[in-house]
Fold:
Amino acid sequence: MKKTILVLLSLMIVALGISQEEKTRTTQEMRTIFNGNKNNNKIIHGGYGGILLNYSQVDNKDAFLAGIRGVWLINHGIGIGIGGYGFANELRFEKQNDDKDNPYSLAGGYGGLIIEPVIGAKLPVHVSFPVLIGAGGVANIREQWSIYNDPSANYYSEDAAAYFVVEPGVEIELNLVKFFRIGLGCYYRYTTDVVLQTWNGNDYVDISPDLTGFSFGIALKFGKF
Structure:
């Protein structure tokens, strides 16, 4: 009798172990975008809207970038959406009466398609890799004084140009609550060359501002993750 009880207990322990192992394997099994997993073929959908605040350098001057992003999330692992930034660099002008001494500033923006793979989305701290592919425009802005040296200056755009942009990045994301994440990001902005014209005091000359470079910032994401 005792031997029978011991055998039954042993079989129960083994069965529980096998069951737990199978449950763990099922839970950890990879989900794909189109096929789900063996036990659940339903694709999980979510999405978020994001507010982006970045620091960068544009044409070797400090620049502030403000942006937005809207992303559709599929199975917690990949996001597809649209987004973009507006930027301006060095919006501080030295007040000079001679127009040729007046510096110019660059202002513009860019946006396009967002593709964002996410790794470990359910973990409190995880990473994502947003990539922006699109286009943008930039203008050189000058401060102009009136012929009467009026202390109130007005601003005008001397020239503008369009460009193509690709901006990959990496974000460390923190799940604060179910509907809110904070991402700390680093990005590299690559753009095609642009040529603008500016007044040098005697004539208009071509300039080629450098729009390529790193940016760093914070992403505030609200949605269903």
